[in-house]
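Problem 12. The chain below contains 128 residues. Write out its predicted structure in token notation.
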Amino acid sequence: MPPKKSTEKPRTVLPSGSKDVSFFEQVYDVVRQIPKGRITSYGAIAAFLGTKMSARMVGWAMNGSFHVKPKVPAHRVVNRNGMLSGKAHFATPTLMEELLAKEKIKVKDDMIVDFEKKFWDPAVEIGL
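Solution.
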């Protein structure tokens, strides 16, 4: 007789200790932990969440983050090269850069200046 299948839903535990949350909520939890003046990439968040190939899904989460409470600092998430690839999803074409400038992050031609120095890797900073 085959073993009985569990009907229990698998649980996800985040660094915050939250359980049973969607992928988007997990992304938002990570993004809320990025310190002011630092940035990370879609891919770094995906890798931290154990879904290395899901950088685009992280991008989709960021697209929906403007209606989420508590606030999600989506302006701190850029592509793997430091490009402001998500700027079109902000209220104005320049808002992402303006928010970064308030945090002393310089941008030139839609690219983060000193990207490597400003990069925040959740796998290193949060760990598990």
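Discussion. Residues 42 and 58 are 6 Å apart (CA to CA). Students who got a different answer should revisit the alignment rule from Section 12.3.
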